Amino acid sequence: MQAFTTLLKSSPVIPVLTIDRVEDAAPLAVALKQGGLCVVEVTLRTPAALDSITAMKRAVPSLIVGAGTILKPADLDAAMSAGSDFIVTPATTRALVAPLKSCGVPVIPGVATPSEVLERLDDGFEVLKLFPAEQYGGAATIAALSGPLPHARFCPTGGIGRDKVESYLALKNVVGVGGSWIATPKQIANGDWTGITENARAAAAFARA
């Protein structure tokens, strides 16, 4: 996980992708990579998600493709079979903890409260996903958590637009942020690869800054 955390710090803005058609996966992967991004998350919210993860890995093998919206152990098994490089959950039940810890790839478990943060840290997870971040107070909440929980590290997602990225990345306890603005479902459906590449360049610029 330490190597993955270091990777996040160098490429801290992660596109959170909802893909409806498998045929969009390969050109999407190329567009994001051309824009300078190397870490992406595909949400398991559509029937095409798992095959899209596989297709993105085949199209751009160097792209780090994770699976999000893991809700139960069966989702985790399917995501691993699809070739996921890392795993993200929106929340984390006790039934998920053991499978997540033994899956063999980095995991970013979802949390929403200080108690959940402590529980996931006690479970041995290093980076946590505050979700939905904006609805739970945004960067101000994460800044407040750094007082009593200075060892917690976050990769928040949920409602984080391009205009909010900088405020999150300015926090020492944030190693990355996820956002759907880089490649929206509408852009993907319309095949707007040029626009997605431009958004990816804008996201990559936050890392350089």
Automatic annotation (TrEMBL):
PANTHER family: 2-DEHYDRO-3-DEOXY-6-PHOSPHOGALACTONATE ALDOLASE-RELATED, 2-KETO-3-DEOXY-6-PHOSPHOGLUCONATE ALDOLASE. Keywords: Carbohydrate metabolism, Lyase, Schiff base. It catalyses: 2-dehydro-3-deoxy-6-phospho-D-gluconate = D-glyceraldehyde 3-phosphate + pyruvate. InterPro entries: Aldlse_KDPG_KHG, Aldolase_TIM, KDPG/KHG_AS_1, KDPG/KHG_AS_2. CDD domains: KDPG_aldolase (cd00452). It is an enzyme of class 4 (lyase). Belongs to the KHG/KDPG aldolase family. Pfam families: Aldolase (PF01081). This is 2-dehydro-3-deoxy-phosphogluconate aldolase. The keyword Lyase applies. Pathway: Carbohydrate acid metabolism; 2-dehydro-3-deoxy-D-gluconate degradation; D-glyceraldehyde 3-phosphate and pyruvate from 2-dehydro-3-deoxy-D-gluconate: step 2/2. Homotrimer. Its EC number is 4.1.2.14. One of its GO terms (molecular function) is 2-dehydro-3-deoxy-phosphogluconate aldolase activity.
